Predict the structure.
Amino acid sequence: MPKNEYYKKLLFCPLDLPTPPDVDYDKFKEWHLEQLEYNKKHNKTAALADGKQEYPWEVSWALWWNTYNKPNPWICDFDKKFPELVEYIKQYPFIQAKSISFLNQKESRDVYLHTDPDNRWGMRFYLKNGLGEKLYFVKSLEQRKERLKTMQDGQYNDLWENSQKEKLYAKFPTQRCAWMLNSMDAFHGVEKNPKPAGNRISCVLIGDYDYEKLFNLFDRSIEKYKEYAIFY
């Protein structure tokens, strides 16, 4: 099987990267409120996403599609307040990172089955994870050539009905780690968070890949974490 086809079957795997830096949640929450005010003025799409009542997350944007190519791309001095995270993010295999957000799961909310807008493979890490191994995947009915979007024409796509209807739970080598997912051939969700926001925060990194570095990372990660990897 050609390597590219092999990687396409990879649905989830922890990544062979160091443990993400730990940050003070109060400091993070303070920055979240600052960027929220910024987005209300400058990034209405981002502000709208954060304000949706049905969203199971509080969303924070460190880098946005209309800031990444500016001389100072980081929103509300994220790079000065969290330089350790900026250095950590540089280890991901991007030619250019274009969107970096943090999804803070709300209290008493589960994350409904959905797909993410990555270029097939998505790069992630846990900033906080007190929820444990509650992330799950369901395989699509067949391998797809394009992503089945969560919303279509303002209506929710019933992803469960387009799936194989078997939940496959992700397992992690440590409580907080780097990991990848596939939003083309699998849909994912998260079980209910019983604790206040701040218990589970995922970082979502989207951009243009250096595919040689990406596939090298996949090779190392699959070899190191073969017992954790989920394939189609």
Q: What stands out?
A: The two ends are 14 Å apart (CA to CA). Residues 43 and 66 are 8 Å apart (CA to CA). The first strand starts at residue 10 and ends at 14. Residues 3-231 form a domain with the Jelly Rolls fold (CATH 2.60.120).
